[in-house]
Design brief:
- The protein has seven helices and two strands.
- The protein is mainly alpha-helical.
- The chain has one domain: Rossmann fold, CATH 3.40.50.
């Protein structure tokens, strides 16, 4: 609970209950999504704390809108294009970064919980902290139409950095 801050926690494009568009999963585009949310909410400046894939989006938001981001905290994930990201992405233990496409979506369809259990069981620092109710929640949400496609598209977009806009 934040007693002295307004906390805004947007779902990234295609994740959880957000819409499941066919594209736009590169992190610069998603930074634009977050900027749009802030604009609708009338928020001019933020202290930005991000985790996992949100780091990549937050980095681009801070890059695109340095006047709006007063502080930036990135937790638990590399930033594409900044060392040692490429080495991390090549780590065979993290093969899910390169796992995707229609064949993988078909392999996982109806087996979302099995797929997700691998992450929770092999990458959690403390298995006792990831409760069954949370596992059920995430498995149900990843079983929604288009959700696994969106999840795989998030990883596939690590290699896609759109050109910077003209000044």
């Amino acid at each position: 609970m934040a007693l002295d801050h307004q906390v805004i926690i947007p779902d990234l494009r295609g994740l959880d209950l957000s819409s499941k568009p066919p594209g736009g999963f590169d992190k610069k585009t998603q930074a634009g999504d977050v900027a749009g949310v802030l604009a609708v909410l009338g928020v001019d400046q933020i202290d930005l704390v991000a985790h996992d894939i949100g780091n990549m989006v937050a980095f681009h938001l801070a890059e695109q809108h340095p006047d709006r981001v007063t502080r930036l905290v990135l937790i638990d994930a590399p930033i594409p294009g900044i060392d040692p990201c490429e080495e991390i992405l090549k780590n065979p233990l993290l093969c899910h970064f390169r796992f995707g496409g229609p064949d993988m979506e078909r392999l996982v369809a109806g087996r979302e919980r099995i797929y997700l259990d691998r992450f929770w069981n092999e990458f959690s620092a403390d298995l006792g902290k990831f409760y069954e109710a949370a596992r059920v929640h995430y498995a149900q949400h990843y079983a929604l139409p288009g959700a696994m496609h969106s999840g795989f598209a998030q990883f596939a977009a690590f290699d896609h950095v759109p050109p910077a806009p003209d000044p």
